[in-house]
Amino acid sequence: MTPDPRHRDSGVRWARYWDSQDDFCETLCSLNARIFIDRAAGPLALSPSDRVLDLGCGTGHVAALVAPLVDCVHAVDTGPNNLALASRNLRDHPKAVVHPPLSPGFIDLDQLGIGPVDVILFQSVLQYLGDMVSVIRALEVAARVAAPGARLLASDLPTSTGLGHSAVCQFSAGLAHGCGHRVARYFLRARLGDYWRIRRDAGVVTFGRKDLFDLAGGVKARAEILDRRLTINGGRLHLLATFPKGHPGSKAAAE
Fold first, then answer.
1. What confidence category does residue 186 fall into, taking pLDDT thresholds of 50, 70 and 90?
2. Which residue, 216, 219, 86, is CA-closest to 157?
3. How far apart (Å, rounded) are the C-alpha atoms in residues 199 and 106?
4. What percent of the chain is helix, strand and coil (3-state, nearest 5)?
5. Which one, of 255, 243, 231, lies nearest residue 37 by Cα?
6. What does DSSP assign to residue 143?
7. What range defines the domain where residue 82 resides?
8. pLDDT for the residue numbered 18
9. What CATH number is given to the structural domain containing 223?
10. How far apart are CA 40 and CA 44, in angstroms?
C-alpha cells in the first residue's frame, strides 16, 4: 500500500492545525475528556499498576484524568504548543510525564525510550494522520512498545466524511454540561477558520469495521469493535485491540 498523493501533506496540515489551538477550545477538550474516561472505563479496565501511553495527547486533559488511576502516563504529541498546555494541565500530576514533540505520525516514538506499556490511547487521532498508510505506521510504532497483554484503544474513528450528526451530538453534550454557548462559538469559529478549509481540501481518514479488524491483525492483536458512544461525537467506531501474552514488540522495547 502506498500513500495517496492527494493526501501526502494532509497529516502535516492537520498536525499544524491542532497545534494552533488556544485556550478557547479548552472547554470542549476538557468536556470530551471527561465523557471519554467515564464511558471508556469499562473497556479499558485501568488498574493502579498500568503504564499508559497517550499518543496524540493534545493539551493533556485525558492524561490528567488517567494519571490518578494508574502507575504512570506518558503524554506524547507532535505539537510544541499542545505540549506546553499539557505541561500546564498536568503540573499537579506527578505520575504524568510530558515528552518532547515528535514528528507527524509519531514515527520517531522509539527515540523516547518509552515501554513497555500496558495501555495505549489514540483518542480522536488516527483520522487526522493523512491516509491509511500513516495510520498503519502509527499502529506499528505503538505496537513496538506494547507489553504482553496490552490494550490499545483507538477511539472516535469516523465512518464517513459527514459532520452533521457529530455537530448535533457535540452541541447536545455541551447543553447537558452547561457550556452549550461555548460549543456553538467553537463551531462558528471552526466554520470560518482553517478547520473547514483543511477538511475540504485534505479530508480525514474514514474507517469501516473491516478496516479496524485489518489494522488490529496487522499488529497481531485481537480486535473488538465498539460502536457505543464514548465521546461527545456520535456515529463513530472505536477499536479495542488486545496484544497476546507473547507479543514480541514488548520484548524489543524492554531491552
1. low
2. 216
3. 21
4. 50, 20, 35
5. 231
6. H
7. 5-254
8. 87
9. 3.40.50.150
10. 6
Q: Evaluate if pTM is beyond 0.70.
A: yes
pLDDT digits (tens, 9 = 90+) for 46-94: 999 999 999 999 999 999 999 999 999 999 999 999 999 999 999 999 9
Residue 139: C-alpha distances to residues 18, 41, 112, 201, 239 (Å): 20, 22, 16, 25, 12
The conformation of residue 238, written as its DSSP 8-state character, comes to: E
DSSP 86: H
Over residues 99-108, mean pLDDT: 95
pLDDT for 213 equals: 98
AA identity, residue 140: E
Domain count, the chain: 1
> What's the confidence (pLDDT) of residue 234?
76
Residues 6+ apart with CB under 8 A from 7: 130, 131, 202, 203
What nine digits make up the cell of 101? 514533540
Q: What percent of the chain has pLDDT over 70?
A: 80
Structure letter (DSSP) for residue 25: G
- Higher model confidence: residue 191 or residue 234? 234
* pLDDT at residue number 255: 42
d(CA 82, CA 7): 23
- Let me know: does 64 contact 93? Beta carbons within 8 Å: yes
Of the candidates 104, 106, 209, 200, the residue with the CA atom closest to the CA atom of residue 161: 200
Owner of C-alpha cell 448535533: 168
Which residue type occupies 130? Answer: G
